[in-house]
Amino acid sequence: MAKTWVLDTETKGTGAQVVPYEKTLRSEKREPDLALVEFDRPPREQPAPEPRQPQRFKVVDVMSAQTLAEDVGAREAVRALEGMRSVLDARISVWSPEQGRWRLLGLEEAKRVWEFRGRLAEEP
Description:
Order of helices and strands: EEHEEEHEEH
Helix content: 10-25%
Structural class: alpha+beta
Oligomer: single chain
């Protein structure tokens, strides 16, 4: 909602101030003698958010330093983990387009990916 402002000249030697119109109505000793000016803001347009791209993963075997899967989706990353004994046997990274590099998942994040092992249904 637009707020109406007026020029308040009832000051003691310090000059005039711009104050809300409601404040001048509270003081009953004078009537506002200046024209009222309303400032309306144009509506801000919200940019449409870009659709999220599917995350891309990279899985590296810790023991051999061999890349098992790179630039693959979540299903392929989980399939690459199928032969592993422990979540600590693999380094799982996710591509970060904002930073332009692979970000290594922390242990808790890697465990969440690890929990999907053996749950994938065979694709037709």
